[in-house]
Amino acid sequence: TNAAGTNTSCILIAPGSIIAKGDITTSFQGCSGDAVMTINGTGTQTVTGNTNGDSNYTDLIAVSMVPAINIDKASGTLFFASSIMVMRGWTYTQGTVDTSTNTSTIVMNGNYPFGYGQSAVVITGSMSFYNLMFYAGGANGNGITYTVSSGTNLTVTNTLTYSDRDTNYTCTINGPGTITAQGNIVATQAGCTGDIAVTLSG
C-alpha cells in the first residue's frame, strides 16, 4: 500500500480485501481502513514501512499505515523490516513471522486518519513481537478499545508501550487473552487501562 505525499493517506474500505503474496511497502503515511489485507505468499515476504522521522510514534500522521492484517502463511517467513502502524485489526492464523531481526515496532491503532472515525480493535492469534505499541488516541474524547481474543497470548520480547501524543485519551486493553512482557514496559501520556493480564517474564 502506498500514498504519495507527506500529508496524504488513503482509506481502504471493507467489504473489499487485499491478498498479498509478495512484499509489502508503505511510504509516507500509507493506507488505513477496515479492509483486511491477507498475507499468504508461499515464500519469503517482507513488510517495509517508515516512521517519517518520528521514532517515538507521537504523531498519528507520521508513521506509515497498513489496513487490518491477517497472516496466513503455509510456508516461508514473513519479515517486518521496519516499523508500521496497523489500523483496526490484527489476526495471526499461521506461519513463521520474524519481527526481531530488524528490531521492528508494530503499532496497533483503531483510528482512521484526520477524524474520519475509530473502531474497537480485535487481536487474534498467539505470536511474538519485538516491540509492540498500543496507540491510545481516539476521536470525540474517547480512547481506543483493544480486545485480545480468547486463547491468544502476545509475547513482547523487547518493549511493550502504551502511548499517545497527549493526555486527552486513554486506551483500554481487555482480555480474555493475555500479554507476556519479556522486556521493558513503557507508558506515556495517559497510557492504557483494562482487564488484560500482563505477565512479566524477562
Account of the protein in words:
The structure is a single chain. This protein is mostly beta strands and 202 residues long. 0% of the residues lie in helices and 49% in strands. The chain contains no helices and 20 strands. The chain has strands at 10-12, 17-20, 24-25, 31-33, 36-39, 45-48, 65-66, 68-80, 84-87, 90-98, 105-109, 121-124, 127-135, 145-148, 153-163, 171-174, 178-181, 184-187, 192-193, 197-200. Strands 2, 3, 5, 6, 8, 10, 12, 14, 16 and 19 form a ten-stranded parallel β-sheet that branches. The chain is globular, with a radius of gyration of 15 Å. Residues 1-9 have low confidence and may be disordered.
Kindly summarize this structure in a few lines:
The chain has strands at 10-12, 17-20, 24-25, 31-33, 36-39, 45-48, 65-66, 68-80, 84-87, 90-98, 105-109, 121-124, 127-135, 145-148, 153-163, 171-174, 178-181, 184-187, 192-193, 197-200. With 202 residues, the protein is mostly beta strands. The model is unreliable at 1-9 (pLDDT under 50).
Helix-strand blueprint:
Layout: E1 10-12, E2 17-20, E3 24-25, E4 31-33, E5 36-39, E6 45-48, E7 65-66, E8 68-80, E9 84-87, E10 90-98, E11 105-109, E12 121-124, E13 127-135, E14 145-148, E15 153-163, E16 171-174, E17 178-181, E18 184-187, E19 192-193, E20 197-200
Parallel strand pairs: 1-4, 2-5, 3-6, 5-8, 6-8, 7-9, 8-10, 9-11, 10-12, 11-13, 12-14, 13-15, 14-16, 15-17, 15-18, 16-19, 17-20
